[in-house]
Amino acid sequence: MNIILIGAQGSGKGTQAEKLTSSLGVSHVASGDMFRKAFDEKTELGIKANAYLDRGELVPDDITVAMVLSRIKEPDCANGVLLDGFPRNIAQAQSLDEGLKETGRQIDVVIYLDVPREELLKRLSGRFICRANQHVYNLYANPPKVAGVCDLDGSELYQRSDDRGEAVQIRLDIFFNETIQLLDYYGSQQKLIEVNGNQDIDQVHTAILSQLNAFKQRKNKG
Ligand SMILES: [Zn+2]
Fold first, then answer.
1. Which of 18, 60, 70, 183 makes a 20 to 30 Å CA pair with 95?
2. Cα of 128 to ligand 1 centre, how many Å?
3. Rounded to the nearest whole angstrom, what is the distance from the C-alpha of residue 33 to the centroid of ligand 1?
4. DSSP strand E in the chain: where?
């Protein structure tokens, strides 16, 4: 089964992706990791993509799509994949559909983690990371025992610059203006599941699994 997981920064997408890939036995393909891996392995696409990232630019759609398609063909993706952070827009989604069709595969289901913008802002503004090991804390949901200090290694907690102030608004604007259009795209293909992401981590995971089962049953009935 090939799955796309869509969610804004702060929606808990990364956490749910980890839980889902282990529950479902599919490979987690996160766009950032994929770029790093392709560059480490010095693939042609990896080197091209890195040149854009080095300049602080977005990697063009054709390179990103080609990289995802080649990643999906690797043996560890034979049981299916969970795509995280890709596609970001309709153009990428269309290229992905076309590329998969050529290999006789398709996207089976798209899961949207729905979290209201105000809640995302609150979560992101409360997010702190430790300097030593990048352990993640949240002042609201998962605070450290001692303010400003990592529970696990005692190092200082800090806030990433893109989790602060205007940078957060810009990231959320991009998500709510562009990525959100994917919901219509996949909705019209009858592939969309919308899950309430405004619950605790285990409740969200349970909701995803039960809606996924209901989706499969509907599909089997045709
Ligand atoms: Zn730490």
1. 18
2. 10
3. 21
4. 3-6, 27-30, 81-84, 109-114, 127-130, 136-138, 157-158, 192-196
Q: In what order do the strands lie in the sheet with 192-196?
A: 27-30, 81-84, 3-6, 109-114, 192-196
Q: How far is the CA of 5 from the centre of ligand 1 (A)?
A: 27
Catalytic positions, written as ranges:
13, 88, 127, 160, 171
Gap from CA of 8 to ligand 1 centroid (Å): 24
Asked whether the beta carbons of 6 and 20 are under 8 A apart, the reply is: no
pLDDT tens digits for range 183-214: 999 999 999 999 999 999 999 999 999 999 99
Strand (E) or helix (H) holding 203: helix 201-221
Fold of 3-116+162-221: Rossmann fold (3.40.50)
- Whole-model pTM: value is 0.86
Pairwise CA distance, residues 171 & 167, whole Å: 6
Using alpha carbons, select from 192, 32, 23 the residue that is nearest to residue 107: 192
What is the 154 CA–ligand 1 centroid distance (Å)? 7
Residue boundaries of the structural domains of the chain: 3-116+162-221
Q: In the structure encoding, which two tokens stand for residue 141, read together?
A: 């949901």
Question: How many CB atoms lie under 10 A from the CB of residue 157?
Answer: 21
User: DSSP string of 16-71?
Assistant: HHHHHHHHHT-EEEEHHHHHHHHHHTT-HHHHHHHHHHHTTPPPPHHHHHHHHHHH
